[in-house]
Write a structure and sequence with these properties.
By secondary structure, the protein is of the alpha+beta class. It has 26 helices and 20 strands. The strands form 5 sheets. The chain has a 6-stranded mixed β-sheet with strand order 14-16-17-20-19-18. The protein starts with a helix and ends with a strand.
Length: 847
């Protein structure tokens, strides 16, 4: 949405106005300088560097008292202490602390004699005067400690923010701007922290060596560069965050850098040369402070004035980059700071040095707060929880170790004489003991601190990790997809999600498996998947609605499709081969300001990798099962091919025998054979046929054999009509009848009877029996029945020289075993001259 013309003009005027106003104090300095030269008629002599004796003198009851003497400073080393009363300086008596300050400030590089009284004792000290530490305020112990802790905390927070936003730098322009902005702030607070640490641990750099002094000056310039640059980066960040504002201010944005460049050059020249004209480096404190406050006020005030800057970067990702309350608070603070720096607040401007130093310190520290405020839009997408919890855990562990060591040393000092060699040895041994204890407790302490600082995201990670361990146990892709979206939806607080997986890869049953979590319109359906799947499959990268997390380069149309259905993330389900087998599309989170970050993306990527491996494993199982089925079917087809020629051979022999003797009966047999072939063709390559169809085939065969044997072959039936539709292996019953006729009835003088029967058994199977009254099978004459799987009896039958378990029966036994997984479904009983009974058991619920 484009800005209204009035708003665009307002923004351009506002930027130019801020750039000009920020230089007002610099203009006043230049005007005063020009006025002096014009009035006096000669150039103003350069002032020497401001001197400092490292003592804060105050007026107390008509006396000049040393309120604070900086430890390790020249004054402290010379012997001055807090509470000393100044009697004379340079053999002159002064009546106010301000007069002493003026004398000392002009004595840089000299050593001045101080006459003081300590109690009633007069003392004289020779104190070297050094340069004043630019932009530092060693005026009281409390101020020193507050400066150290304040800049330490600010540096720590900046470092956390920098570590959080660093992984996003390569993906997002906004993240890169945040990185530069946070880096500039860290340069200021980190550099100042190092300067404070040097003064507290070493003392003034001029008392160490010239090289150390030069390094300290370089550190000062570096930190000042960060302090001068970060307000400009801050305002630029705000103006670039919204596309319509960025377009409206394109030609005036370079004005932002006029003030920082001028101030930076002036401070650099003044620091290197000692002065710029008559102006020393310290004179630029208030101009810099005024410029910083003006830019901070502009950066935090614009989002309150221009609604475009308060809109989310993406309408599908409701996470506004600025907090109204935070912006308003920092705006008020910055305006007060600007008034103070411009000497427009008389109550503050007339305060003593320590009060002013406290105000300046507060402004220096609080002026970097907008770094977090405007960078939160990028920081929230980084690993903020992980970085913060680990940092707090390490701080807790190191703090505990430090206090244990200090407490032990205090106890040693209370028990023995401090400063002796023995006490040093004991202190070293105590440190060794602490390290050993820390090594033993490291693992449980790590778990305790991890539990203590566990965040909602880390609990979600734990839950997803536990589910990921169970993924490999799933055997059903539909159930796996359903449980995945449910676990992810609950763990991450997702408003809606849909998961598509390719199941049965490499098999004829390849298909899409879909599962949804709280689907809400507009939906991400198979139609939308068809539009974006080809590019997702080609890239295999995560797509995100916000630039900080986006890795993919989807075409604008495909990205618009995802945004149109309310998608916030699209994570490919990619396995070890690098080829996506699905996609996980998630909508925004339930909580209004909650967003996905790098931790969420990493968790989802890891889970999707496990899903891909699980689907590959399930695909292998399905392919293996398909191969087993195909192998079994091929084997059955081969067995059937063996059965049909065997039966045809016997039938043709019967017809051949009848043609010469009884041609009329031969014609009838041919008709029966034709009907039999029709039945066989109708059965086709089916593995199972209904029992009544198998019996029709048997009756046609027996009609052919009765034509051959005449009255010598009788047929009886005792069938259960309820089993007429029972599926039975094709040609299995016909094979048993054929063997009964050939090996039983044909070999018995006078012929015999073949009896067919079927019944249900109590064990849940159906029994189909073929009994004959033939000669019997000698191999089966033992009383115990022989099972098809009894290898010993089968071997005995083969050794007997009878064609028992020949091609036909072996095929029937093999088919039953393959189809039902059992070897006890085909059994035989036989007795001499009484015949044979062959039984097939068919499970009523075949596997």
């Amino acid at each position: 949405m484009a800005l209204r013309p009035f708003t665009a003009r307002f923004l351009r005027v506002f930027v130019v106005l801020v750039a000009v106003v920020a230089l007002l104090p610099v203009g006043h300095l230049a005007a005063d300088w020009v006025s002096f030269v014009r009035v006096v008629g000669r150039p103003l002599e350069p002032l020497p560097p401001r001197g400092f004796d490292w003592v804060y003198w105050t007026d107390r009851e008509g006396e000049i008292v040393a309120a604070y003497v900086v430890p390790l400073s020249p004054a402290h080393e010379a012997g001055l202490r807090a509470g000393d009363v100044l009697f004379q300086l340079q053999y002159q008596q002064f009546f106010t602390a301000e007069d002493v300050k003026q004398v000392v400030s002009r004595a840089s590089g000299q050593a001045l004699p101080y006459e003081v009284t300590r109690g009633d004792e007069p003392l004289v000290f020779e104190v070297p005067i050094t340069r004043y530490p630019t932009f530092l305020y060693p005026l009281s112990s409390a101020l020193q400690v507050a400066s150290a802790w304040g800049f330490s905390l600010a540096a720590f927070l900046h470092l956390l923010a920098l570590l959080t936003v660093a992984p996003l730098v390569l993906r997002s322009k906004r993240a890169r701007r945040s990185f530069v902005l946070i880096g500039a702030g860290l340069l200021w607070v980190g550099g100042n922290l190092l300067r404070i640490a040097v003064l507290m641990l070493v003392g003034p750099p001029e008392t160490v060596s010239p090289a150390f002094t030069a390094a300290f000056d370089g550190l000062t310039l570096l930190s000042l560069a960060g302090w001068i640059l970060f307000p400009a980066f801050l305002l630029r960040h705000v103006l670039l965050d919204a596309s319509d504002v960025r377009q409206a201010t394109r030609w005036v944005r370079p004005m932002i850098y006029v003030a920082p460049v001028m101030l930076g050059v002036a401070v650099l020249v003044a620091t290197v040369r000692g002065t710029i004209g008559p102006i020393p480096p310290d004179a630029f404190l208030r101009p810099i402070l005024f410029y910083v406050c003006c830019y901070v006020a502009a950066a935090t005030g614009l989002p309150l004035l221009v609604p475009a800057l308060r809109r989310p970067a993406d309408e599908h990702y409701p996470a506004p980059p600025f907090s109204r309350l935070g912006s308003a608070g920092i705006l008020v603070f910055a305006l007060l700071g600007a008034l103070f720096a411009y000497n427009a607040l008389p109550l503050l401007a007339t305060g003593n040095d320590e009060t002013v130093a406290w105000i300046i310190l507060l402004l220096q520290l609080l002026s970097v707060l907008p770094v977090g405020l405007v960078s939160v839009a990028s920081l929230r997408y980084g690993r903020l929880d992980t970085v913060l919890s680990r940092s707090l855990a390490y701080l807790a562990a190191l703090g505990g170790l430090f206090f244990a060591f200090v407490g032990g040393l205090w106890l040693l000092e209370a028990l023995g004489a401090p400063g002796t060699a023995d006490s040093d040895v004991v202190a070293g041994l105590w440190m060794v003991v602490l390290l050993l204890i820390a090594e033993r407790l490291a693992r449980p302490l790590r778990r305790m601190t991890a539990d203590l600082f566990t965040t909602e995201r880390q609990r979600a990670r734990q839950r997803l990790n536990r589910f990921g361990d169970r993924v490999r146990t799933y055997l059903d892709p539909e159930r796996l997809a359903h449980d995945t979206v449910q676990v992810v939806g609950e763990a991450l607080g997702v408003r809606s999600a849909v998961l598509f997986l390719r199941a049965g890869l490499g098999t004829p049953q390849e298909r899409w498996v879909q599962a949804s979590w709280r689907p809400e319109p507009p939906y991400f359906t198979r139609a939308e998947l068809g539009r974006v799947w080809s590019q997702i499959q080609e890239e295999g990268k995560v797509w995100a609605a916000n630039a900080e997390l986006n890795e993919s380069s989807l075409a604008p149309g495909d990205a618009a499709t995802l945004r149109a259905v309310g998608a916030a993330l699209a994570v490919p389900v990619t396995g070890g081969q690098g080829v996506p087998v699905g996609v996980f599309v998630l909508g925004r989170k339930v909580r209004r300001r909650a967003v996905y970050n790098l931790e969420d993306v990493e968790m989802l990527r890891a889970l999707c990798g496990q899903l891909a491996l699980a689907m590959e494993r399930l695909g292998l199982l399905e392919r293996e099962q398909a191969l087993v089925r195909e192998s079994a079917e091929a084997h059955l087809a081969a067995l059937r091919a063996q059965i049909n020629p065997h039966f045809l051979f016997n039938a043709l022999n019967t017809i051949a025998a009848l043609i010469g003797e009884r041609p009329e009966e031969a014609e009838s047999v041919v008709e029966h054979l034709a009907a039999l072939f029709r039945t066989v063709l109708q059965a086709g390559s089916r593995t199972f046929v209904p029992l009544e169809e198998e019996l029709r085939l048997v009756r046609q065969y027996l009609a052919i054999e009765q034509a051959r044997f005449g009255e010598a072959l009788q047929v009886e039936e005792a069938l259960d009509d309820s089993l007429a539709t029972l599926p039975v292996p094709a040609f299995s019953l016909q094979t048993l009848v054929e063997n009964a006729v050939k090996h039983g009835i044909e070999r018995k003088r006078g012929g015999g009877t073949v009896r067919l029967s079927s019944r249900r058994l109590p064990d849940g199977t159906a029994e189909i029996a073929v009994a004959d009254t033939g000669v019997g099978i000698p191999a089966l004459f033992p009383a115990a029945p022989v099972l098809a799987g009894d290898e010993e009896a089968m071997a005995l039958a083969e050794d007997g020289g009878i064609d028992f378990f020949g091609i036909g029966l072996r095929n029937v036994a093999s088919r039953l075993e393959r189809l039902y997984g059992r070897t006890d479904l085909l059994s035989f009983e036989s007795a001499p001259e009484q015949g044979t009974v062959a039984r097939i058991q068919i499970p009523l619920a075949p596997s």
